[in-house]
Amino acid sequence: MSPTPTTADVLERLADVIESRLPARGGDPQASYVARLLAKGPDAFLKKVGEEATEVVMAAKDAEHGGDAGQIVYEVADLWFHCMIALAHFGLRPADVVAELQRREGTSGIEEKALRKALNREGAGE
Ligand SMILES: N=c1c2ncn([C@@H]3O[C@H](COP(=O)(O)OP(=O)(O)OP(=O)(O)O)[C@@H](O)[C@H]3O)c2ncn1[C@@H]1O[C@H](COP(=O)(O)O)[C@@H](O)[C@H]1O
């Protein structure tokens, strides 16, 4: 029996497939949705990122009013997928995002925001 794939396995495998669709890797826009978006360039896939983010918001608002929470999963999957296309275009991997989240682990958002404000004030010579 094959082991259950971890979240990281699935993201890494998808990132490999997306990378294989890059124009520099010979991705075929006739045969692949990812290759088609990558060939069109950043405006095309960034537009999709914006649209999918809006769809996540709409699904969450629906769920708040008694709609199906499963729809949020569906829309977040679309959003992550299109974000991964953007990452691939810029030579980045899901592991880079995970590393950034790991770096933030244990730092309260409130603390981090206060530190950022203090640094900005210092930078402005206040
Ligand atoms: N995870 C996905 C995935 N999620 C969503 N989509 C596609 O994303 C597209 C956009 O979704 P929308 O809901 O916005 O659909 P739409 O409004 O018809 O799209 P547009 O006309 O605006 O482009 C749809 O065509 C979906 O099929 C995906 N297409 C591919 N993958 C993965 O990427 C791999 C490579 O795909 P290809 O490059 O197409 O072979 C696949 O094997 C999958 O693992």
> Per the principal axes of the C-alpha atoms, what is the gross shape?
globular
Q: Count every beta strand, where a strand is a DSSP E run of 2 or more residues.
A: 0
**What percent of residues adopt helix (DSSP H or I)?**
over 70%
Q: What oligomeric assembly is this protein in?
A: single chain
Q: Which stretches are poorly predicted, pLDDT < 50 over at least 5 residues?
A: none
User: If classified by CATH, what would the architecture of the domain at 7-92 be?
Assistant: Orthogonal Bundle
Quick one: biggest sheet?
none
- Which strand-content bin applies to the residues? under 5%
CATH class of the domain at 7-92 equals Mainly Alpha
Query: Please, how many helices?
Result: 6
